[in-house]
Design brief:
- It is built from 21 helices and ten strands.
- By secondary structure, the chain is of the alpha/beta class.
- It folds into three domains: 51 residues, no CATH class; 293 residues, TIM Barrel (Alpha-Beta Barrel), CATH 3.20.20.140; 46 residues, no CATH class.
- The two termini are 16 Å apart.
- The model has no long low-confidence stretch (mean pLDDT 95).
Length: 457
């Protein structure tokens, strides 16, 4: 089935453990045969990843389980560690693999995976390494809401140089990805045709000064570079610093939105569940994110626990503020699935929703699996999947106007009302990138449906 886009995809969590282990093996890394932990070289030849992979498949399998949620999802050690911990600790375990050359390979794997799902578009959460170096060099001292404007003014003078470095890093990485995929040659892979934009991400569990720096650079990137179409805020919402500083982070968004009014905002919000945090933290995170400028909500699992849930749901429906739904992620990390998941609640109130993958490699999923899961666990039918897929392009941060009139999917704008091939429509599609991608999707969808015997009209 052709799919629209994946709007919630973290680059760091999209390659599978096996991809990371291949890169580590090429760098001479070894592994502890008992625990599965990776070690940088030098080390004993018998412990090299290459040797283990070729001679000890059962030990290699243990290493894969150690660096993903694969084993946990099959019941291994589920009594010793939560899915939440197994998921997030995996990033630390993979983080021992060092090298500035990893990013292009990770990006190539990501594009191949999403293109393999027959999707048309990807919004990839990715911060250039130069950006992160600048963020981490910032002050770890405290910062309060009253000091945000002054901190902004103090950071601006040095921002232009850092911004230039970050953009140059992305230029270099993208060029290498194009080479890896053979784009522009007779060996070009299908991933070359995937439309990709980026979201810059702030790190909510860092000290406030560094969170502000990451948000500032994200807003500046999205304002200056058309490849960056918006900003987000990531890391576990339930970690102590993230909970403590939640209101401060919302204030940061408001201050920076005033400085950079053109920048789009999506936020991880409500990635919480009953029992994960004290009840007081479940009452208003989604509502506060929306009041602080969020145009989309990532996860939104905790909506039913919010004090003003019905007001927020009606507001999201009327203002068309969609939710990026991550079914596998929510099941593993939060233990929320089936009837407990709020997907049906959002749909009942008319809130737009779309399916996405989150960290598909760590979770051992892909976009197609998320669609299948929506059918099996949420009782969605084919027509529902089409609606969600269309929504993923309608609410993507893509330049230009929509193919759909007044946001009503299925009702085309006047220029394209009679035919996508009409001269006026072709001109409209050429002038509006979003509408162009939507029209391409509709053509692919119709072609797909024509291949199905007795397809229901």
């Amino acid at each position: 089935m052709p799919k629209g886009g994946d709007l919630h995809n973290h680059l760091s969590g999209t390659p599978y453990a096996e991809d990371f282990l291949d890169w580590a093996a090429a760098k001479g890394y070894c592994a502890d045969r008992q625990t599965g932990a990776l070690r940088a070289p030098p080390c004993a030849a018998a412990d090299s990843l290459s040797r283990i992979a070729s001679e000890s498949p059962y030990i290699y399998a243990r290493i894969v389980d150690h660096h993903s949620t694969r084993g946990w999802q099959q019941g291994i050690d589920v009594n010793e560690v939560s899915g939440h911990t197994q998921f997030f600790i995996t990033f630390d375990r993979l983080g021992v693999i060092e090298g500035r050359d990893l990013v292009p390979g990770m990006m190539a794997v990501t594009l191949r995976t999403i293109a393999g799902d027959n999707a048309a578009y990807l919004e990839l959460m990715h911060n250039p390494r130069e950006m992160m170096a600048w963020v981490m060099a910032g002050s770890a001292g405290q910062l309060d809401e009253a000091g945000l404007e002054a901190r902004l003014e103090s950071e601006l003078p040095g921002l232009a140089v850092e911004l230039q470095r970050a953009r140059a890093q992305l230029d270099a990485d993208e060029a290498e990805v194009q080479a890896l995929l053979g784009c522009g040659t007779d060996r070009a892979e299908s991933a070359c045709g995937l439309k990709v934009n980026y979201l810059a991400s702030a790190m909510r569990a860092l000290p406030p000064g560094q969170v502000f720096r990451s948000l500032l650079m994200g807003f500046a990137l999205a304002d200056a570079d058309p490849r960056y179409v918006g900003v987000n805020i990531v890391m576990p919402e339930d970690w102590p610093v993230a909970l403590r500083d939640y209101d401060l982070h919302m204030a940061m968004f408001r201050v920076l939105k005033q400085r950079y009014p053109r920048v789009n905002i999506t936020m991880h919000a409500g990635e919480l569940a009953q029992g994960l945090v004290p009840p007081r933290h479940l009452k208003d995170h989604i509502a506060k994110a929306i009041s602080s400028g969020a145009q989309r909500i990532g996860h939104g699992v905790g909506i039913a626990n919010e004090t003003e849930a019905e007001t927020t749901l009606r507001h999201m429906a009327s203002e068309r503020i969609p939710v990026e739904i991550n079914l596998s992620s929510n099941a593993v990390i939060l233990g929320v699935e089936g009837n407990e998941h709020p997907l049906a609640l959002y749909r009942r109130y008319g809130v737009p929703v779309m399916l996405s993958t989150d960290d598909l490699g760590i979770l051992r999923t892909d976009l197609t699996t998320e669609y299948v899961r929506a059918v099996r666990d949420q009782d969605l039918e084919y027509a529902d999947l089409v609606k969600l897929s269309r929504a993923s392009l309608e609410y993507a941060f893509i330049a230009g106007e929509s193919l759909w009139r007044d946001g009503v999917m299925g009702r085309r704008v006047d220029a394209c009302r009679t035919s996508l091939e009409a001269a006026a429509c072709r001109s409209f599609l050429q002038a509006n990138e979003k509408a162009g991608l939507q029209a391409e999707y509709e053509v692919r969808l119709r072609a797909f449906e024509e291949t199905i015997v007795n397809f229901p009209e």
